[in-house]
Amino acid sequence: MPEALLRVNELRKDFVVGPMFRRKTVQAIRGVSFVLNKGETLGLVGESGCGKSTTGRAAIRLIEPSSGSIEYDGVDLASVGARDMRRLRQDLQIIFQDPYASLDPRMTVEQILTEPLGIQKIGTSAERRERVMDIIAEVGLQAAHAARYPHEFSGGQRQRIGIARSLILNPKMIVADEPVSALDVSVQAQIINLMQDVKAKHGMSYIFISHDLSVVKHICDRVAVMYLGEVVETASRDALYEEPLHPYTKALMSAIPGRRGAQKRITLKGDIPSPASPPRGCAFHTRCPSAMAICKTTPPQAIETGGRKVACHLYN
Amino acid sequence: MSVAGETSPPMLAIRDLQLGFRSHRGDVQALAGVSIEVGEREIVGIVGESGCGKSITALSVMGLLPEGTTRVMGGSIEFRGDDLLTLPPRERRQMRGRDIAMVFQEPMTSLNPIMPIGDQIAEPIRLHLGLKGAAVTEHALDVLDKVGIPRSRNILPDYPHQLSGGMRQRVMIAIALACNPSLIIADEPTTALDVTIQGQILDLMVEARDTFGTSILFITHDLGVVAEICDRVVVMYAGKVVETGRTDEVLSSPRHPYTQGLMRSLPSLDTRQERLETIPGSVPALFDMPRGCRFRPRCSYADDGCRRDPPVEVIGGQKVKCWKARQISGVHHA
Ligand SMILES: Nc1ncnc2c1ncn2[C@@H]1O[C@H](COP(=O)(O)OP(=O)(O)OP(=O)(O)O)[C@@H](O)[C@H]1O
Ligand SMILES: Nc1ncnc2c1ncn2[C@@H]1O[C@H](COP(=O)(O)OP(=O)(O)OP(=O)(O)O)[C@@H](O)[C@H]1O
Ligand SMILES: [Mg+2]
Ligand SMILES: [Mg+2]
Question: Is the ipTM of this complex over 0.95?
Answer without folding.
Answer: no
